[in-house]
Amino acid sequence: MSIIQKLLLNAMIISKEKNEPVEVRCPKCGRTQIVYIPKEEIPVCETCHIQMVISELLDEGKST
To answer: According to the CATH classification, is domain 3-57 in 2.20.25?
Structure first.
C-alpha cells in the first residue's frame, strides 16, 4: 500500500467512524471490486495475486 493510500485511509477513519465504500482496482489486469473500509482490508487480486489499489471513493450523490 502506498503512502498516499495510507494517508487517505487514515483521514477517512479519523473523519468518519462508519464504513465507506471504495472501488479498488488491480494495477496489472484492471479487475475491480467494491470494498468497505475500514471494515475490510484492501484485497489481493485473485487473478494476478498482487495488492489492489484504491481507484475511486464511492460517495453518496454526485458533485457538480
So the answer is: yes
